[in-house]
Design goal:
Blueprint (H helix, E strand, L loop, with lengths): L6 E2 L18 E7 L2 E6 L6 E5 L1 H9 L6 E2 L5 E6 L3 E6 L8 E5 L3 E4 H6 L2 H13 L3 H8 L6 H8 E6 L7 E5 L7 E2 L5 E6 L2 E6 L8 E4 L8 H9 L14 H26 L9 H12 L7 H13 L3 H18 L7 H7 L1
Parallel strand pairs: 1-10, 4-9, 12-15
Antiparallel strand pairs: 2-3, 3-4, 5-8, 6-7, 7-15, 8-14, 9-11, 10-11, 13-14
Organism: Chaetomium globosum (strain ATCC 6205 / CBS 148.51 / DSM 1962 / NBRC 6347 / NRRL 1970) (Soil fungus)
InterPro entries: SET_dom, SET_dom_sf, SET_domain_protein
Pfam family, one: SET
Amino acid sequence: MATPEHLVKFDERHETSQTYTVPPPWKGPEHCHVEFCIFSNPESGEGMSLVTTSRSAFAVAIAETPLSTGLEAGSFYEAEIPGKGSGLIANRTIRKGEIIMERPPALLIQAEPHVDLEPEVRDEVYQAAVDRLPEPARARFLRQVGSTIYDKVERNSFRIFVDGDRKHSAHLGVFPEVSKFNHDCRPNVHYRLNGLKHTTIAVRDIPAGDELTISYIYGRASHATRQSQLREWGFTCTCPQCTLNATETGASDNRLRQIEALETEIERIMGARGAAGLRPEMGGKLVELYRAERLDAYLAPAYTRAALIYAMFAEAERAREFAAEAVGALERETGPWAKDVQSIEMVG
């Protein structure tokens, strides 16, 4: 089920249309197989190609394409990282909450042809779609990790839902500049998707010389689970969190279990009439565990729970403290449109 921030919504004013024709400067349909065709626009962002249905292409074409924005030039640079290949390095201190980059996709592929087309046909369609990108965008796409275009899509794409949850809504979006971020299980950068816009934002202060990283997986998993999941990406993770000694790894896994147990207990109590058994320190303990685990990209739920719990016990100062932290974390993790921001601001 799509989350709202991943949706490119169809304009219902066009709902009665029987056919969907993309407006200029969009081109297509071209190179069609069954109902999936190539649509392209060299002027959309820095160039965009689609492999999708005419309806989904129309939804994308009439949506507002986000501009490529972010930090000023020179704030970070690309460099070779030992054991990783290329990566991004901070060239100055990047402060928590600064947006690193905002980008539209260069290639957007409907999920069904990616999975169902015969490999020979699929590869031909993908090559034609990439060929329709302007040369700079095409070069950035081809520099990504992966031996073939299919492999590059597999290893570098993010799921985007076009036109709500209708048939054929699931798409894979490839953002070549975002693919330069390497993985860390405790990343200093968080990413979010809103429509066609991919945003990366610092979740803690990043000193000059540090690598900028995102997480390819959900970071609250145990050490063994993370290692197993990341092997499916084709590498063994050697980030600082994954190379702790056995004692430290055990302590980390134990904190993660405590987080899960405490959140379950809080939800159970708050869902029951009267909230019997709830204690104000439960909110503070939850935040303490998140901070100890350096889960900086996932703090919004912990801060929100803590603010609400302290407010229930009329501990106004602590409630305001965690409400302010919750608002900042919600805006970093979800965006300024986060639905809980206004209600949490009222707590503060």
